[in-house]
Amino acid sequence: MGAAFDEMSLEDGGIRDGYVSLKRWLDTMPADHIALRRSQAELFFRRIGITFAVYGDAEATERLIPFDIIPRVITKPEWQRLEAGLVQRVNALNAFLADVYSRRECLKAGIIPEDLIFRNAGFRPEMDGRPVPHGIYTHIAGIDIVRVDAETFYVLEDNARTPSGVSYMLENREVMMRLFPELFAEHRVAPVENYPDSLLATLRSVAPPSASGDPVCVLLTPGQYNSAFYEHSFLADKLGIELVEGSDLFVRDEVVYMRTTEGPKRVDVIYRRIDDDFLDPLAFRADSVLGVPGLMSAYQAGNVTLANAVGTGIADDKAVYSYMPEIIKFFTGQEPILKNVPTFRCRERDSLAYVMEHLPELVVKEVNGSGGYGMLVGPHATRQQIEEFRRKLKSAPDGFIAQPTLALSTCPTFVASGVAPRHVDLRPFVLSGSDRVRIVPGGLTRVALKEGSLVVNSSQGGGTKDTWVLDA
C-alpha cells in the first residue's frame, strides 16, 4: 500500500482546486473555536435524536455517529465524471437484475457463472419470470466509492437492497449551514436538500399501471428497534408519506391496503426497509411478524411496487461485484467509466493460491458480508487473525473474495490533536425512476477517525462529513 492521496494538499505544499478558501479558513480559525462548533453540532444531533443502534453492544445500544465539521470538497469536473459513471453502473445493474429473472442472456453468454446466481442467498426463485413495474429493480442504490489518486475513483461495493445513510447526508448539511454560514457564503455548494423531492418523484413514477393519478406511497419499517429506525421516520416525514409497520397493512384480493381512521386506503408503492426474508410470512419466513401476509401475491399480480424489488440482493454479493466490468460491457456496450477494485475470487484455484500466499497484504471479505464485519485487513491484522482467515479460506473458499489494500484518499479532519488527514469513502445515492435517473450532488462521506484506520463504517468507529460538490 503506497502513500494515500491527499484531497486537499499537493505534494509541493500547494492546495488543490476547491480547497483554497477552506484551507484559508482553517488557518485563521482557532482550534478552540472549531472544538466549540463541534460540540454545538453534537448537541444538535442529540436534540433531534439522530442515533443508530449497535446490535450486540451491551454498553451502548444507541449511539451518535461522530460528525466531523470539516467538509469534504469535490470539484464540479470531478463530480461530473462520477455522476456519469454512477448512471452507467446503476443502469447496468437494473438491466442485469431484469435479465437474471427473465431471459438470462448474460448467463447463456457466459458473462457470469450460473452457480453464482442460483446458489446466491440473494436470489429469489419466486421472482423468476415475474416482471416488476416498469422493469426497475433497484430504485434506490448506494454505491460506495473510494479514491486513490487525482484521476481514479473505484467502486468498492454496490448496495442495491436497502441502502442506508441518506438521513445523515441531509442532517450533516443542515448542521453545517447553521454553524458555518460564512463558509457557504464563500463557496457555491450544490444543494442536497431536494433529495426527498427526488425520492418521492422516483417512487411515484414507478407506481403500477393500476394506480390512481396520485399514487399512495408508504415507508415500511421493521419498527423502532431497528438500527436505522431514525432514518425511516426521518425520511417518511420529509417525503410526507406514512411510516408503517407490517401490522398497519393488509392484503385483500391481491391489493395492499393501509389501515386508517377513515377506513382502508389502497397502497400503490411501498418503500420497504425490511429484508426479503421478512416481507411476507406466507412466502418467505413463516415466523416473521414484521411483514404483510399476502404481500407477494399482490406484488406478483402487479398491483403494488416494492422499492427496492425483491431479489435485488444478488447485486450486493461481492463475488457478483467482481463481474461488474463484464456486466456493464454486456448490457451497455460501453467500457466502465468507474473501475472496480481489482478482486481475487477465492473460488478460483489460482486466485486462492495467490491469496493464501499474500494474506498479510490483502483485504479479505465475505461475499455476503456488510458493515465492516467478516473481513480481514491484512496489514493491520494480528498473526492469529491471519491464521484464522487462512482456515476459513481452506474450508469455504467460495465464500470470500480478496482485494489489494488500497491507500484510500484522505481529507482534513478535526481530531483530538487538531486538524489531521483521515481516510474517507463516499456513498452517493442513485434514484432510478421510470422517467429518469436522479442523483443529488455529493452523498455521504464516511471517515475513519482512528489514525491509520481504513475502516469507515459507523459500527466500527467511523464518522461522517458533509460532502460539498462545488457548482463552479
Can you walk through the features of this model?
The protein is an alpha+beta fold and 472 residues long. It has helices at 20-28, 31-48, 76-100, 105-108, 114-118, 166-179, 181-186, 195-205, 229-239, 295-300, 318-321, 324-332, 349-357, 383-395; strands spanning 51-53, 62-64, 67-74, 140-147, 153-159, 217-220, 242-244, 249-252, 255-258, 265-266, 269-272, 305-307, 339-340, 344-345, 362-366, 375-377, 400-404, 410-415, 418-427, 429-432, 437-439, 444-447, 463-469. It folds into three domains: 1-124 and 135-191 and 315-341 and 422-472, no CATH class; 209-303, Rossmann fold (3-Layer(aba) Sandwich); 342-405, Dna Ligase, domain 1. The radius of gyration is 22 Å and the shape is globular. Helices cover 31% and strands 22% of the residues. The protein has 14 helices and 23 strands. The chain has a five-stranded mixed beta sheet with strand order 3-23-22-19-18. Helix 2 crosses helix 6 (166-179) and helix 3 (76-100) packs across helix 12 (324-332). The model has no long low-confidence stretch (mean pLDDT 92). This is Circularly permuted type 2 ATP-grasp protein. Residues 71-448 form the Circularly permuted ATP-grasp type domain. Pfam families: CP_ATPgrasp_2.
Short description:
The protein has helices spanning 20-28, 31-48, 76-100, 105-108, 114-118, 166-179, 181-186, 195-205, 229-239, 295-300, 318-321, 324-332, 349-357, 383-395; strands at residues 51-53, 62-64, 67-74, 140-147, 153-159, 217-220, 242-244, 249-252, 255-258, 265-266, 269-272, 305-307, 339-340, 344-345, 362-366, 375-377, 400-404, 410-415, 418-427, 429-432, 437-439, 444-447, 463-469.
